[in-house]
Design a protein that fits this description.
Helices cover 18% and strands 35% of the residues. β3 and β4 form a beta hairpin.
């Protein structure tokens, strides 16, 4: 686990080759980007080919939890082990790269080449390992549910033994981590400034429509407070 410092330590894998000025290692920034998103993309190698899967996740301190079916590829592979560590020994788990991205605005330039987006992203490298301890697994599943809707795990039936048996959880420590952020307007070339094309930023905002109750919901059950504030 990383030391409790204000920033993560850059490594060769977390220093970008382009736009290095947009890279950041601030721990609070990384946590904020992770906590605001819903879906991560989990990348790994299977049979010599890359695989990237979208999935839900949750964070507890310096650890991310990802869950899925016990039959899913990455969850089976973490249990199988076989990742080679830097010292040449076999490390149980699965080498992965996990990413999260927010798109904050469309950036429209005068030239097609300089069109872009304003974004905030996090990339995590590491070895994902299976969670076998029953209490940690229950905690992880609650964290994933509450990550999507805070407080929801306390207002729903916990997983029973059969459901827990069908659900696997892996953990990934936040150790080799970087954020990357773009803000501001288009970076047009000076000779393009006078071109007769609109240029600027189109902000994007996340929003929620009014919750729609299930058709079979008891009409006496009112909307919970944690949904009314979304």
């Amino acid at each position: 686990m990383p030391e409790n410092t204000a920033a993560y330590r850059p490594t060769p894998r977390t220093v970008p080759t382009r736009a290095r000025e947009r890279a950041a290692y601030d721990r609070e920034l990384v946590h904020g980007i992770l906590d605001e998103a819903y879906v991560c993309h989990l990348g790994f190698v299977r049979d010599g080919a890359p695989v990237v899967l979208p999935t839900l996740y949750g964070r507890v301190g310096e650890r991310l939890y990802v869950h899925g079916s016990t039959g899913s590829r990455p969850l089976r592979m973490t249990s199988a082990g076989g990742t080679e560590s830097t010292d040449g020994e076999t490390d149980p788990g699965l080498a992965v790269c996990l990413t999260v991205t927010h798109v904050d605005a469309l950036v429209l330039a005068r030239s097609a080449f300089h069109h872009s987006i304003n974004y905030r992203s996090v990339v995590v490298h590491g070895v994902a390992r299976p969670v076998s301890d029953p209490e940690e697994r229950r905690t992880a599943l609650d964290v994933i549910v509450n990550h999507v809707v805070p407080g929801r795990s306390y207002d729903s039936r916990p997983a029973n033994a059969r459901e827990l048996a069908a659900t696997a959880v892996i953990r990934l420590d936040l150790d080799e981590v970087s954020a990357k952020v773009r803000t501001g307007g288009p970076n047009d070339d000076p000779e393009d400034i006078t071109l007769p094309h609109w240029a600027g930023v189109v902000p994007l905002a996340r929003g929620y429509d009014a919750p729609v109750p299930s058709d079979d919901l008891d009409p006496d059950i009112t909307l919970p407070d944690y949904l009314s504030v979304l």
